Amino acid sequence: MSQTDVNKVVLAYSGGLDTSIIVPWLREKYTCEVICFCADIGQGEELSGLHNKAMDSGASKCIIKDLREEFARDFLFPMLQSGATYERQYLLGTSVARPLIAKWQVQIAMEEGADALSHGATGKGNDQVRFELTFKALSPTLRVIAPWREWDIRSREDALDYARSHNIPVEATEKQIYSRDRNLWHLSHEGGPLENPAKAPQEDMFQWTVAPENAPDNPEEVEIKFYRGVPVAVNGKELTPAALVAALNTLGSKHGVGRVDMVENRLVGMKSRGVYETPGGTILYTAHRELESLCLDRETVHFKEGIALKYAEMVYFGQWYHNLRKALQTFITETQRPVTGWVLLQLYKGSVSVLGRHSDNSLYREDLATFGEESVYDQKDARGFINLFGLPIKVKAMIDNNEAENKRFAAPDYSKFKRD
Known about the structure:
By secondary structure, the protein is α/β, with parallel strands linked by helices. It has 13 helices and 14 strands. The strands form three sheets. It has a five-stranded parallel sheet with strand order 3-2-1-4-5, sandwiched between helices.
């Protein structure tokens, strides 16, 4: 398909620096109609004036869809059930959002009769893969236009110059030039001063969570109720998925919970430094893990930990719609059947501590765990178990000892004492 074959493009639009300048660039480069699509997944005030901004930039239409409930229900909570964390720290806030945005971008393209899709992801980052793998999975015939792989703009400073030359107002400046992504799950910060991993982030960079040292001096308790691994209530109040995450974000932000500063391995091969604020997600992950500790047997817990690593990698790599991720989700969903109950947590100056947990499906038995007198478990039985469990170790030690004894009493080698 040549440039002249592109008549209508659906752009994943955020109103940020990159996507703001893409609108006029697409119109100039391809002489096409540009439809801006924005998924409301919890950006809050960032959506204010977005429609007018898109139209002023040259878009023929701006479609905004409220996807917060779908995001929490169909993406965040299944991921929460998996326990997935990328490289031990990242709760995948940006990664898990891209497949949802791309899914609806494809849907809008079909409804509007568009022949191409576009996004503002750079050629160095992970998002280009996440968008385009979803496009391939859901509509492989649509053309994909990735401006960062085509245009001459090579830096955010260049992008700011382009915006000024086209009279496009943007919030980013040379002094405050972080690349941010905000949704219901997290707020991420990259670029600018953060590109030096030796420098601590400036406090004025954080926009969501209070600094732990400035958090309230009194701890706060919060109870979270789960049904089959899905959080359904906070402090006894049942909430919709999106409302539940939002409520925990408010509590966590107040107490400085959920800040992460990490250097991660991007899919494209380079390392990058990111700072994340994930208050509600941090609380939920802690609570869910504790409830699983009551309700799942040892073999399932240990196997599921391995699954979580692969699951996290697939989400980070943009493989949400991959058959393997779907198959893993089926297994995870089955493991969550007994994970029903509540967890009581304490929030205090950046920390989340577990105070208690309960489930009617609990595998914890006080009469088995006690060190006192009990009738269910005979401690003498442990001797036979240890003998059998340790048999391979014992046999190996006997062989090693026997070899050592043979060497001890072996005839000396006098050849080394012979004169030349």
